[in-house]
Every structure is written in C-alpha cells, then in structure tokens.
Specification:
It is a single chain. By secondary structure, the protein is an alpha+beta fold. The chain has twelve helices and eleven strands. The strands form three sheets. It has a six-stranded antiparallel β-sheet with strand order 2-1-11-10-9-8, sandwiched between helices. The longest helix is centred in the middle third of the chain and has 19 residues.
C-alpha cells in the first residue's frame, strides 16, 4: 500500500532524530546582508584561477552565445561570502531570472504552508482551486506536483524540439499564456496521480497557485513575502500571468546573494535566526529520492529528485551512481535553464550560487560540468 505523502514526511522525521529539536545556532544571520570574508588570493591564487578559467572564460566572443556564459558566482562558507565575481554587465545588485530554480523556491513555499498548517500534502488541489471542484483533476493532491508526479498530461521540451510539442512553451509564450492554470489542468490526467515521475514546469506552477491561495487565505495578500521572503531578507520579484497565477516554475528574479539565502535556509534545516520556517523533517524529505522517481523516472534521468531539488544520491535499485562523483553524498541543488544553480553542501557548510546564460552545453543539463564546478569551488572554499 502506498503511504500518504504526509505520513511519509512524518516517517522521515521519526527516523531522523538529528533533525528534531531546536533550530541551529549561528553567530549571525544574513537577513539584511551577508558578512564578507574574502578568500586570501595570495594563498588560493591557483584554486581561484582554476575556478575562474572554468566559469568565466568564454570559448568565443559573447555574441556567439557559446560556452559558459557566467553572469555571477558566489560562494558562501560558514555563513559568510568568501568569493564573489560578476560578468557580462551583471553586478551584486542585479536581479537574475531564476528559470527552474523557482521550482525549488515553490517547494520551500509549500513547506512554509505546511508548517503554518495552511495546507497538507494530502489535500486535494481543489481544496484551494474551487473553480475546478468536481473534475477528475481533483484526484491530484498537493504532494503530487511537489514530486513531479501529478499525472497531468504534460510534455516538457524547449528550444531543441518543435515548439508545437512543448507544453511549457505553449504555457509561457503561446496559446496558454493568458490563463496558465487552465492550460496546465486543461489536458487532464495521463496517469494515476503519484504513480509516474514526469519533470514538469506545469506541476511547479500549479503548486505555486495552490500554495499562494492557501497562504494568502491565512495571511493576506503577498503572503509569499510576509511568510518567507521577508523573514530571510530575500528581495524577490515573482511574475504572474494576467489572471494572477504566479509563475512558480520558471519566472522569479533575485540576486545571487539572495538565491544563496535559499540555500542557507535549507542548510540550516529550514530555520532562520531561531525561527522554524519549514517543518521538522522537511529538508530530509526534500533530499530523499521520491518514490515516484525511484519507481518510474526515465532511465536516462540520472539525477534524482525529492521535493523539487536535485540530489547527489545513489539509487541502487536503478543501478545509478551518484551524479557528482567529486561532491559529498549530501550535496543537492536547485537548477534552472541556461545554467542557474544553487548548490548546497551541508557537510562543508557551503553554498554555491551560479547564474548564467549558457545556450550550448548549459550547466543546468551538464552533470559532468556541474561536478567540475563543484570540485573547483570546493577547492577555493577549503
């Protein structure tokens, strides 16, 4: 029998006593700004050069749109910024498009809503989407899109495939852009909810709509800000469609330093400055391969997901090694199109944020390139 998603979260907590109890204590919290502790370049010159040669050296002129087109790179170690560099017209105050890093932020907002008891992972999405009550899509529960297992009909393809085949391009830029929730739910179910893993921007945006209604209903308009972004000091812009659905699968803007706060929240077990924002056990559940992924992800998908984060985890039943061999087993990441990365390594107290505009061999799809970036950043942070 398949356990309910809420029971799975409780089971994770029960088997992870280290996560129970008080929030972690830190000398300071970067709510207003990150403390800076720059790397001693004289002591780390070769390591910094290797990192920068990889991340910032274009293979051709920028206009050719090839190679690694890094816009910003920030390393946070022990709660301080130890390294920071920007390029291609970006600076420390420049907000950057998140692309699918937004999915991991939507996951965090879901955790906030669960912690506040505004919803449960076992709630039907129609508990919040009243206009869809009575339809077959009400069989989808909140936890299903959180694990890319809604069962909704969806095809996730981008520029490298015909546009008419892409559910996400039609939603964001085509026939579905004015009412994106209707576009997501309009195709109906293609599989039993919870039974099939299918990476989907539609799942994440559906989840952001459900969570927004749940939080706004309890805490008033702009609850995303009052309940998450403001407590951790993230200055975030979230795009919405004309009907007010947040584009929580793709279109969120923040600076690399603010994206690093997302990583720091998770590295500290969902706590911030003595206040628990995510439920106990949430980060552990987030960083455990989901049942749907283990059972049904395509064999070519070698990086497992939990609650919309990508994990450096082995899945023995699938015969897959961990995707980043030069990173600790506990590393995990938020990833976005064209090379956006928020990488968390709890065992080393390290957060790596990279923003970019890769158009070929983008780091968000290049597991070997991600492994190289992690290895070079770890060498600088050591």
């Amino acid at each position: 029998m398949r356990l309910s998603l809420s029971l799975l979260l409780l089971a994770t907590l029960a088997t992870s006593p280290a996560l129970a109890g008080p929030c972690p204590t830190r000398p300071s919290w970067p709510t207003k700004q990150w403390p800076s502790k720059p790397v001693d370049l004289s002591a780390k010159a070769s390591e910094v050069k290797a990192l920068e040669d990889f991340a910032f050296t274009l293979q051709l002129p920028d206009a050719a749109r090839t190679g690694l087109r890094t816009d910003g790179l920030v390393l946070v170690k022990g709660g301080a910024v130890i390294y920071e560099r920007y390029a291609r017209g970006y600076g420390a105050e420049s907000k950057h498009l998140s692309w699918s890093v937004a999915k991991s932020i939507t996951s965090a907002l879901t955790g906030v809503a669960v912690e506040k008891k505004a919803l449960s992972l076992d709630d039907s999405i129609c508990d919040q989407l009243a206009e869809y009550r009575g339809r077959d899509v009400c069989r989808v529960h909140v936890g299903h899109p959180l694990t890319f297992a809604s069962g909704l009909k969806w095809q996730e393809t981008y520029e490298d495939a015909p546009y008419q085949q892409s559910s996400v391009i039609a939603m964001l830029f085509g026939v579905g852009h004015r009412d994106q929730l209707a576009h997501i739910l309009g195709g109906g179910l293609a599989a039993e909810p919870g039974a099939r893993w299918n990476y989907s921007t539609g799942d994440a945006e559906l989840l952001s709509a459900v969570v927004k209604r749940a939080l706004d209903g309890r805490f008033g308009p702009d609850a995303f800000w009052s309940q998450l972004f403001e407590p951790v000091g993230m200055d975030v812009v979230v795009e919405q469609d004309p009907r007010g659905t947040p584009l929580g699968g793709s279109h969120l803007y923040a600076t690399p330093r603010d994206f690093a706060k997302l990583g720091w929240l998770y590295l500290n077990d969902g706590c911030w400055d003595g206040r628990r924002l995510l439920p106990e056990g949430w980060v552990k559940a987030t960083t455990t391969p989901s049942e749907a992924f283990v059972a049904s992800a395509p064999d070519g998908e070698r990086t497992p997901t939990g609650y919309a984060w990508w994990l450096n985890a082995r899945v023995p039943s699938r015969g897959h090694p961990k995707p980043w061999p030069d990173a600790p087993d506990d590393a995990y990441a938020a990833e976005g199109h064209w090379g956006q990365l928020v990488i968390v390594i709890p065992s080393e107290d390290l957060v790596i944020v990279r923003t970019g505009d890769d158009r070929e061999n983008e780091l968000s799809d290049d597991v070997a390139g991600q492994n190289t970036l992690i290895a070079l950043a770890r060498a600088v942070a050591r």
